[in-house]
Specification:
The complex is a heterodimer of chains A (80) and B (419).
Chain A lengths: L2 E4 L3 E4 L4 E5 L11 H9 L7 E7 L7 E7 L5 E2 L3
Antiparallel strand pairs in A: 1-2, 3-4, 4-5, 5-6
Chain B lengths: L9 H10 L18 E4 L3 H14 L4 E4 L15 E2 L6 H15 L1 H5 L10 E5 L2 H16 L5 E4 H7 L15 E5 L3 E2 L2 H14 L3 E3 L4 E7 L2 E7 L2 E4 L2 E4 L5 H7 L7 E10 L9 E4 L4 E5 L5 E7 L11 H14 L8 E11 L6 E4 L5 E5 L9 H14 L12 H5 L14
Helix pairs in contact in B: 2-7, 2-10, 3-10
The chains are: A mainly beta (80), B alpha/beta (419).
């Protein structure tokens, strides 16, 4: 079982949350090239290691927040 | 040691039985050669099939297959071994129908009993909308010469007597897409059969050989570094499924792939009672019975990205709930094992096959939840691609460059399960 630390509600069962995915800097739509935009949309680091990702407390306070999670061991720590 | 490898046959079985002479290993171990014409990373069904068809169809035998663990230890040994070709697009139907044709002839082709069982495949419809989609799929299939038809709930009950077709169910069964050519195969045997056949043709299979680096000079691949030494090679194929982004990173190629586990489970063996494969998209579950009598269950991918192949209690609870909604009489069955395989999911749920921006570095990845049933046809096509230096017509739309061009393929509907 995985506990996700919601900043509002505290640690809750992962089933209450929706996984949003890896975070990355969103390019500025006004200045970005098509290539940069597609890279932002489609490319993922997909690391087998610590990774910063966004979760959504779907069945709770409905807050979006960042979590740092190890994708191999499922350990979780607050994002540094 | 005798160089000639024995063929499996009734006569060989009798001879070994009488003489008590031990069987030779199915494939040999080798020292790493300093160079190969083609290096294939990933010893699963895709990598081994590519090696086999390279040697058999194109005469390219100076080939090494490298696996960081053991052959078939990844998705090839962790899937639910279901085969079918009842896809929705004419291209998808043609592609998987070729794969099914190769699977049907595989035992004879490889001289290895892969236990191919053409037992029919049912995709249940629990709503008018899904019944309409089933009809659409059936018509597309029939237009391509693939046997596929919509049947009603009574017919479903006749084919699967244990199934609950009453109106009491949470998702009542209205009908199903019946696909008689579908079935199951012994997945490990497919891996071993390809490995043995490739070995006989001169391919080197290297287990416990992890690739730690890929050398690229002036935009072309020159070789790989491994835990057992360096290999020079002008062609390197990445066929590593869930680990494909980690391997591609070594060559400086980024892939639009994210890794999600897909769990499966198997029960204790019971008397044969289920003669078809049963799939429910609404309940996210698929069930088949092996030749040993075990029931094999699969579901949808886990809801977050992960490299863990451990099972979870949430999965077992959800699975049991869904299976019992279909077949309440299985309530007393005990689960023997559960496990997870790693799926390489792409943004358009279609695979990535062919060349990359690094010359000589090819990929056969992004197979997500349906890589196993495509193994033979993907191997045949990738071998063609390597031998001729360009992708064959069959896989041309699946190139990596489609993401840069914004020409994604809509294959999500092709999978039987939720994502």
């Amino acid at each position: 079982m995985m506990l996700i630390p919601c900043p509002n509600c505290g640690p809750r069962h992962a089933g209450e949350f929706a996984y949003v995915g890896e975070t990355g800097a969103r390019p500025d739509p006004a200045t970005t090239t098509a290539t940069e935009w597609r890279n932002y949309l489609y490319l993922r680091h997909n690391r087998a290691d610590w990774t910063v990702e966004r979760w959504y407390h779907r069945m709770g306070c409905r807050r979006y927040f960042l979590v740092e999670r190890n994708t191999v061991t499922h350990e979780i720590r607050p994002p540094s | 040691m005798r160089e000639r490898r024995s063929r499996y046959s009734g006569l060989a079985l009798l001879r070994h039985g009488i003489t008590g002479r031990p069987w030779q290993p199915a494939w040999r171990s080798h020292d790493l050669r300093p160079s190969y014409e083609v290096v294939i990373i990933g010893g699963g069904v895709h990598g081994l099939a590519t090696a086999y068809y390279l040697a058999r169809n194109h005469g390219i035998t100076n080939v090494a297959v490298l696996d960081k663990g053991y052959l078939g230890g990844g998705g090839s040994g962790r899937n639910t071994a279901i085969l079918r070709s009842n896809y929705l697009t004419p291209e998808g139907v043609a592609f998987y129908d070729r794969s099914l044709e190769l699977y049907a002839g595989l035992a004879a082709d490889l001289n290895f009993n892969v236990m191919f069982s053409r037992r029919g495949h049912l995709t249940l419809a629990h709503s008018d909308a899904s019944l309409r989609t089933m009809r659409w799929r059936a018509e597309v299939n029939k237009a391509s010469g693939v046997d596929s038809d919509v049947i009603d709930a009574h017919e479903v009950k006749r084919l699967v007597p244990r199934i609950d077709v009453t109106d009491e169910a949470r998702y009542p069964i209205l009908g199903a897409l019946h696909h008689p050519p579908g079935g199951i195969v012994r997945h490990d045997a497919v891996v071993w059969g390809y490995a043995r056949a490739a070995d006989r043709l001169g391919v080197h299979l290297h287990q416990d050989t992890e690739v730690t680096g890929i050398d690229v000079a002036h935009g072309r691949v020159t070789g790989v570094r491994t835990t057992r030494g360096d290999i020079a090679a002008p062609v390197v194929l990445n066929a590593t499924a869930g680990w494909s982004t980690l391997v591609a990173d070594l060559a400086g190629v980024r892939l639009p792939v994210q890794t999600f586990p897909l769990q499966a489970a198997v029960t204790e063996p019971v008397q044969p009672f289920l003669s078809t494969v049963v799939v429910s998209g609404s309940l996210h579950v698929y069930v088949s019975q092996t030749a040993r009598g075990e029931l094999v269950f699969g579901a949808s991918v886990d809801p977050f990205a992960s490299y863990s192949t451990r099972g979870s209690l949430e999965f077992t609870e959800g699975l049991a709930d869904h299976v019992l909604q279909l077949m309440p009489s299985l309530a007393r069955l005990r689960l023997l094992r559960q496990w997870a395989g790693l799926c390489d999911m792409t943004p358009d749920f279609a695979p990535i096959m062919g060349h990359t921006e690094v010359e000589g570095f090819l990929v056969d990845v992004g197979w997500g939840t349906y890589g196993f049933k495509a193994g033979p046809v993907a191997g045949e096509a990738m071998a063609d691609c390597i031998a001729h230096g360009r992708p064959p017509e069959l896989i041309a739309p699946f190139g990596l460059e489609r993401f840069a061009r914004g020409r994604l393929l809509g294959e999500k509907g092709a999978a039987a399960v939720g994502h």
